[in-house]
Amino acid sequence: TWYDAPSAGNVVVNPSLSSVGSITYYAEATNESTGCISETRTPVTLEIIATPQAPTADAEQTFCNASTIADLIAQGENLLWYSEPQGGAAINPATYLINGNIYYGSQTVNGCESLTRTGVQIFIDAPEPPQGQAQQIFCNQGTLADIELSSTDIIWYLTAQGGDALPLDYVLENGATYYAAQQIDGCESVLRFAVNIILQQ
């Protein structure tokens, strides 16, 4: 039998809660054979937590090349991202972002997910590689800084993909090929421009 107090009090036929907040009911046991009742009552608290608001975020966000759902920026707890403003399944955080798409984020607080979602439109920066002469000739010696290309913010590599960036004072080798990426607003081109070097003596 449920009561509204730990002792005495009123019988509660249907313990319930229909609004945000909490309430405690007290359960008393009765032995059906003897009619004896428990000396104490067990308290049980019902609680309804307010649904959190949607997270806050910039309506437009720009990323470099191959960015993922995990790179989206929003202020909130336990963020989930969806392709629709309502319904659907949450997107895997490792999924690549698609240029121009709108993604919708919710937050979950104390186990409750927000009913509304915040939309964020995505723009992907994908700079082109620099351009210039694919073969360049120097007298006797030179460095990477001496190679002339159409961009002023160039990052040099020894390989067409991956590898570590080279310093601009790296000394050129005759017959070697170096690979240039262009950086715009902190975003580096995925493709690289190859330059073959000839040193004339």
Describe this structure in words.
This protein has 201 residues and is mainly β. Helix content is 0%, strand content 34%. It is built from no helices and 14 strands. The protein has strands at residues 2-3, 21-27, 42-48, 60-64, 80-82, 102-106, 108-109, 112-113, 118-125, 135-139, 154-157, 177-184, 187-188, 193-200. The strands form four sheets. Strands 10, 11, 12, 13 and 14 form a five-stranded mixed sheet that branches. The protein has a four-stranded mixed sheet with strand order 4-9-6-5, with no helix packed on it. It has a three-stranded antiparallel sheet with strand order 1-2-3, with no helix packed on it. The mean pLDDT is 95.
Q: Rounded to an integer, what's the Rg over CA atoms?
A: 33 Å
Q: Assign the structural class, choosing from mainly alpha, mainly beta, alpha/beta, alpha+beta, or little secondary structure.
A: mainly beta
Proportion of β residues? 25-35%
Shape: rod-shaped
Could you give the distance between the termini? 103 Å
- Largest β-sheet summary: 5 strands, mixed
User: Counting H and I runs of at least 4 residues, what is the number of helices?
Assistant: 0
> SSE order in H/E notation?
EEEEEEEEEEEEEE
Helix content: under 10%
Count of strand segments? 14
Mean pLDDT rating: 95
> Uncertain regions: pLDDT < 50 for 5+ in a row?
none
